[in-house]
Amino acid sequence: MVDTWTLLIIDDCAADRKIYRRYLLQDPYYSYQILEADCAESGLALCQKIHCDVILLDFCLPDMSGLELFDQLKQEIFDSPITVIMLTGRGDEEVAVQAMKRGAQDYLVKQYLKPDVLQLAVRNAIKQSHLQAQLYKNRERQRLIATTALRIRQSLDLEEILNTAVVEVQQLLKCDRVLVYQFSPDNGGKTVASSMESWETVSSCHHIENLCHEVRGENHHWGCKLAIPQVYETGLSNYLDLLEQFKTKDNLVVPINLSNNGNQEDQLWGLLIAHHSTQQRKWQADEVEILNELSVQLAIAIQQAELLAQTQAALVKAKQLNAFKSQIVATVSHEYRTPLTSILAAASTLLKHGQQFDEFKQQRFLGIIEQKARSMSKLVDNMLMVNRLELDKTKFKPIPLDLLQFFHDLIEQERETVSDRHELIFNSSGNYQNFWGDRGLLQQIFVNLISNAIKYSPQGGSVEFYLIGKESEVIFYIKDEGIGIPMTDQEKLFQAFSRGSNVDTIPGTGLGLAIAKSCVELHKGNISLSSQIGQGTKVTVSLPKQPL
Ligand code: ATP
Ligand code: MG
Hints:
Blueprint lengths: L2 E8 L3 H12 L4 E8 L2 H10 L4 E5 L7 H11 L7 E5 L4 H9 L4 E4 L5 H38 L5 H16 L3 E7 L5 E6 L4 H4 L9 H5 L4 E2 L4 H7 L2 H11 L4 E10 L2 E13 L9 H69 L5 H32 L8 E3 L1 H15 L4 E9 L4 E3 L1 H17 L5 E9 L3 E7 L7 H4 L21 H11 L3 E7 L3 E9 L4
Parallel strand pairs: 1-2, 1-3, 3-4, 4-5, 8-9, 12-14
Antiparallel strand pairs: 6-7, 6-10, 9-10, 11-13, 14-15, 15-17, 16-17
The protein binds adenosine-5'-triphosphate and magnesium ion.
C-alpha cells in the first residue's frame, strides 16, 4: 500500500513548482497530496490551516527570505514538528548551512534537481521526521508515566495511593472512569477505588458474577494476556459482573500483580480498569502500555503500603506484649508477696510452736498455708493462660458437647466450694443440641464468670445461671446480686489486669474476664456485661453452635 503524504511547495516560480510536482507524482513508493504557495504569507497561512508532512521551501521568496519564513513557521506552528527541505541556488552553501543549523531536514540545489534526487530526499525527510516524532512521543510518554508514578508512590497510605492512582490514570488516558478492583482471599472482590465519586451510587452491586463470557469477548481489551488463565482460576467468577456494572464494553483491563516474596509467580492482587462509555473507544497500543506500566508502579506502591502497615501492626503488637510482660512482673511481685508472707509466717509459727498447739490450732495454720498456696497456684495458671492467649498459642479444639451435662457437672463442682450464703440456681431452655465447643476453654470461661459472681457478692445472695438454646447459637446469662461495677470501669474490665474501683479488699488479679473474653473469641462468640452498682451484675455470653 502506498502512503499518501501532504507536501507543500513554497516557491514564487510557477514553472519550478510544476517541475517539483511532476517529479514527486512519479514517486513509485509514496504518493503525495501537493499544495502550493507562491509567497511566504500564503505558505504560512496554509501551514496554519493544514498539517503538512513536508515543506519544500525556496530560499528566496518575494516577501521574505526562506530562512526568515522557516523561523516564523517554527514560532507559529507548535502542535507538530515541521519538516523542511530548503531549496537553494547554486553557490548558496551559506544559506544551506544556516538552514540545517535551524533544523531543516535537508537542502537541495535547485539547478541539480533530478526526479530521483527529489523523491529520495523527500522520502528520507519524511522517515526521519517520523522517527523523531516517535522518539518525542516515547519520551513524552515516559515522562508522563514517571510523573504519574511519582505521584502515586508519594504516599504510603493504601487508600490515598489507590485514590491518587485512579485520578491520575484517568487524566492521563483521558477516559471516563478508572477503577481499582481488589480480589479477596475467598475469590470474591470489590471495587476499592474509583475516579468517579458517585460510583457507589451508580451501582450498588459490588459482587461480581457472570464475567467470563464478557472477558473472553472481543470488545473487552485485556492489557496483559498472561494474566487471564490465572485470573480465571482465582477470582474470576466474581469479576464477571464488573462489566455488567459498567454497561459498556470499552474497558481496558490490566492486572495488578504483587511480587510474591521472591517467588517467581506473582500474586494477583487486583485489576486496574480504564473505562470509557461516552463514545466508542479503540484503545491504542501505547495506551495499553501506559496502563500496564502504571499498574506495575501501583503494585510497588501497594506492596510498600502493605509492608508498612504490617510493620506498624507488628510494632504495636510488640509494644503491647512488652507492656503486658512488665505488668506481669509487677503483678507477680505484688500479688505473690502478700500470700507468701502469710505462708512463711504460718509455716515458721508451726515450726517453732507447733508442738504446743492443739490440733485445732495446727489445722488452722495449715489451712492458711493451703489456701494461700492455692491462690498463688491459680495466679500462676492464669498468667500462663493469658500469656498463651496473648501470643496466640492457645489451641482451639472443638468437639460435640452435651451442654446440659457439662453445666450440671460444673455447677455441682462450684456448689461444693460455695458458702451457705450463696444459692446457685441453674435454668435452661430451648434447643442446645448440636453444640461444638472446646471443653477446656469453656471451663475457663464459666469457672471465671461463676467465681466472679460469687466473689463479688460478699453478702451472699442468689447466683442465677441460664442456658438458652437458639437455632444456630447458644446464649448464657450469669446474674448475681453483688456489689456491681461502676459505669466508668465497665468498658475496660475485659482487658488484662483491669479491676473495678469498688473491689476494696476483695482479692483478684484482673485476669479472669480477659481470659474469658479470649476463649469466647476463639469460639467466634461474644461476651458483654451490664451492671448497676450495689444491685448486681449480669454477664451474657453467646456462642455459635458450630464455631468452625
Ligand atoms: P481474677 O484474675 O482472680 O479473676 P478479678 O476477679 O479481679 O481477678 P476479673 O475476673 O478479670 O479479675 O474481673 C475484673 C474486674 O471486674 C474485677 O476485679 C471486678 O472489679 C469486676 N467484676 C467482674 N465480675 C464482677 C461481678 N460479677 N460483680 C462485680 N464486679 C465484677
Ligand atoms: Mg475474676
